[in-house]
Amino acid sequence: MTDAEKLAYLTEIINLAAIQQLPKATEHFVSDLHGEYDAFDHILRNGSGRIREKITDLFGDTLSAKEQTELCFLIYYPEELLQEKQLDDHAWQTLMEQLVTVARYTSSKYTRSKVRKALPPAFAYILEELLYQYDADFNKEAYYNAIFEQIIALDTAPLFCQELAFLIQRFVVDHLHVLGDIYDRGPAPDKIMDRLMTLPSLDIQLGNHDILWIGSYCGSLPCLANVLRIAARYGNLTLLQEGYGIDLSAAIAFSRKHYSENPAFYPRDAVDALSEEQKQDAMLLQQAFTIIQFKLEAAVIQRHPEFNMHDRLLLHLIDANRRTIHMDEDYPLINACFQTVDSKEPYRLTTDEEAVINDLMTQFHASLRLKQHLHFLAEKGTLFHLSNGNLLFHGCIPCQENGAFLPFTFGEKSYQGKELLLFFQKCMTQSLAAPHIQDDLATDMIWYLWCGEGSSLFGKKAMKTFERYFIADPATHQEQKNAYYTLREEENFCCQLLEAFGLAATGHIINGHTPVKVRKGETPIKANGRLLVIDGGLSRSYQSVTGIAGYTLLANSFGMTLAAHQSFTNRQKAIEERIDIVSQKRLVVRQSERILVAQTDIGAQLQKESTDLLTKLKQQHHQP
Q1: Dihedral (C-alpha) 453, 457, 463, 465: value to the nearest 10 degrees?
Q2: Closest Cα to residue 463, out of 480, 447, 446?
Q3: For the whole model, what pTM was predicted?
C-alpha cells in the first residue's frame, strides 16, 4: 500500500468518526394526506412549524412579530412573494443577509460535503462562501458586501433569495416519513406524488387507499372498481380524467344507459366545484361501479376460500323483487340500484360491464404518469419500516384479544405478525412485476389488503360497504375493529410488539390510519408514550369529528415533538392573508443528552464502514 492510499483510508476513517459526533438531523413524520395537496405542501414548506421556531430564535429580539411572519412566508412561498417585492438596494441586502443567517443556522447539523451537494448549481460557489462565513472574520467583510452588491446590480437578487428559501426548506428537515394514505377523497394526490418525487430523502409506509391504486395498476379488477366508486363518491373524477388522462366517456355512457336518479349516490365532497352534469354523472357512475365491484369481489372470494370472506357474498340473498335481502334476518333495501344483477347469476358481469372495466384497466396500464407515480410508490413503499429504534406502519398488526398475533393461512402456509406483513409485501412485488396477470394469488392478495380480516391496513373483521349503501339499520353498518386497537393502549403490549420486530422496548410505535378525535377527548399519545398516532385528519371531511387538522411528528437531537395543526384554507388565501398553519407543539420525549448521529441507524452504518476500512487497512499493512 502506498502512502497516498494509506492516507486516503485514514482520512475516510477520521471523517466517518467525526460525522458520528454531529447532532442527529430532524425527521418529519406525516400521515393520511388524503389528496390534500395544499395543506400537505404548506406543512412541508414550514417544516411543521420548525422554520418559524428558527426565525424566532434568530430574530426574536430584532424583528417584530409581523416582520417575522413576513420572513416566514417569504421562505415558504418565495415564488409568489418575491414577485411582489419592490425593494431598494439596502433592503435587498438586508433580506439576503437574513436568509443567509437562517440557512447557515438550519444547515449547522450537516457536514460541509452534504451541504455542498444540496446547493443550487448556479449559486453553489457564492452560497458556500456565505454559509461558511465566520462573523468574527472582519477581514472578509468587504468581500461579502461585494457579493451582495453584485447580486443586486445584476438583477439576480429575487432568484438568489428564492434559491436560499428552498435551501432553508431543504435543511430544516433531513428526512420525511409518510405513514400512508396519500390517495383517497382529496382532490390532488397526483400533485402530492409529484412533490414527494422531488424530495432527497423519504420513505413511505403504504396505506389502505394507496394499496387500492397499486392493486389497480397491478391488474386487480376489484381494486380498480373500488377506485372508480370512491372517486365518484367524493366528486373526484377529474383526478382520473385530467390528472392521469383516463377517458371515462365509455363508463359514463354505460352508467347513463343502465342507471337512473338515486339521491343517495350524489357525490359527498367537492360539490361546489362541480357542474350539474358532473354531479349527475358521478351519481350514475357510483351506482355502476358499486355493483361492478361486488361482482368482481365475488370472483376473488370464490377463488380463495382461505380468505374466509363468503359472508361478503350478498347479491344472491336479494329477493327477486329487489326490495328485501335475507341475511341473519330480513332487511328492506334502500337506494336500490340492482338493474344489472341477474337473480339467476347475480355475480356474472354483463357484456357491457366487462367491456367497461377492461377498457379502464387498459387505460390504467397505458397512463405514463400513473405508471410513474405507482412505481415510485411501490419502490419507496413498505407495509412497515424500522427507523432509529421506532416501528412505523399505517394501520395495525392483526392480533387476538390475548395479545398474540392472529395467524392466517395462504397457499398452505401460515403467517402472523412480521412474517405476515413480509408475505403481503412479497405479493405486491410479484404482482407489480406482472400486471397483465389478473387472477393470481399475488394480485388477489393486494385486494385482500384493502378489506380482508388479516390485513394490517384494514384492521377490521369485515368491510360493510353493501350494508352502508343499501340497509337502513345502522346496527348492520358496524365494522368490528381488530383487538390491536384496544391493546395498543397498553404499554406492555407495545413493548412486546417492538421486541417482535427486533427493536428495543424503549422504542416507539408510530401509527397513522385512525383519526384522533380530540373533540371527544382522545389523545394521540398512548401506552404511556410508547405509541403515537399521527393521523388527525388533513382531509377536511374528518375535521368536524377530530376538531383539528392533523398531527405530525418531529424527531430531532432533543427528542420527539407532536404538532397539532389548525385547518388550512387554501394556498392563495394563506399567502394573501399570511395565514400559517399554527402548530401547537407537545414534547413527547425529552432527551437528557443530545442525540448524536452515532446513536442512529446512519451512525451504525457509518461505524460499520469505519470498522471495515480499518480492518482492510490492517490487512493491507500486514501483506508482504
Answers
A1: -160
A2: 480
A3: 0.93
